[in-house]
Amino acid sequence: MSDKMLAALKTKRAAGAELIEVNIPQPKPDEVLVKIKACSICGTDKHIYTWDKWSQSRIKTPMIFGHECCAEVVEVGSHVKNVKMGDYISAETHIPCQYCYQCRTGNMHLCQNLSILGVDINGIFAEYAAIPEICCWKNDSSLPIDVASIQEPLGNATYTVMESRVQAKKIAIIGDGPIAAFACGISRAVGAAKIYNLGMMPFNLDICRRMGADISINVTTEKKYVERIIDETDGGVDVVLDMAGNKNAVTDGFNILRRMGTFTAFGIASEPFEFDMANNVVFKGANVIGISGRKMFETWYQLKNLLDTGKVDVKPAISHRFPFTDFIKAMDLATSTAVPSAKIVLLMSPEI
Fold first, then answer.
1. Which of 47, 67, 94, 109 is catalytic?
2. What is the pTM of this model?
């Protein structure tokens, strides 16, 4: 094996990235070296690529970014016990210390000393990557690599839906990106009674509908959607899943939430905004849930069951597949406002 690999790096503190040759990493004693089979582009990667304010404050260059992948284990560190050569894995991207209060009480995904693959340390937009053993999720060999590569964001949606207890309830999913689409599919699979999906892009709203939404509402063209939902649900939906996070989405979400309903927040706003706590939460008696990442590893078992049984088909959300060598082209598409896209998967072997 050569000691060099192709990788996507942020080499400068500016927009863009470079696809260049670098050294293959050497795994630490508690890490494994993996050969990437497929990787996919996340919203976080778009922030890093465009070099927004968050990226400028968080990312240290030079760095290989990316965190959604599936891969084959080709080398194991001396302290690794439960992962072996040849294992087909996907990566949990939260790297916990395993010793803080949260880690020791079953909440590693909220570790006080958390690091994130492809954000705080080198990631997986490369031919090879070093991944901590704790982050390796073993896949069945029959799982297609494009599906295996998107399990991390699928886990975000699974965690959001399962914590919200949507069974037999009328719900609204705000947002029309890939994770919102996954949430539509999972909500349908676990028995939501009626699913409203609110978004802005016809291309993406169609994907969400194919994934399981009953009613799609384009908030840019339908002006009285709040009144419509309140009227059709006799006072508001039981559950709101906010996958957008901006001020308008949060305001709409609480407006269409019935009294004593549940508002689950996954979307992240680009900056703080004013919020009416009294009317939105206190006087409404709302239950508010915050979602960060996935439960390690309860969520992974749940999404595995959904995939294994065919309850959820995630492929409608994969809009594009590129060879990894077309990384820059794929990132330009992902960050384009002119051409619609959903989940973009990069394949190391283009013939797959």
1. 47
2. 0.96
Extents of the domains making up the chain = 4-150+314-347, 162-290
Q: Does the pLDDT at position 104 exceed 90? A: yes
- CA atoms of 276 and 284, how far apart (whole Å): 11
CATH of domain 4-150+314-347: 3.90.180.10
Catalytic residue among 11, 44, 233, 325: 44
Active site residue 47: yes
Does the annotation count 67 as an active-site position?
no
Look up the CATH architecture of domain 162-290: 3-Layer(aba) Sandwich (3.40)
Q: What does the block give as tokens for 266?
A: 């996954």
* 165: exposed, middle or buried (Cβ count in 10 Å: 0-12, 13-18, 19+): middle
The SS3 call for residue 155 is helix
pLDDT score for 350: 64
Give the integer Cα–Cα distance in Å for 59 and 70.
23
Query: Is residue 60 helix, strand or coil?
Result: coil
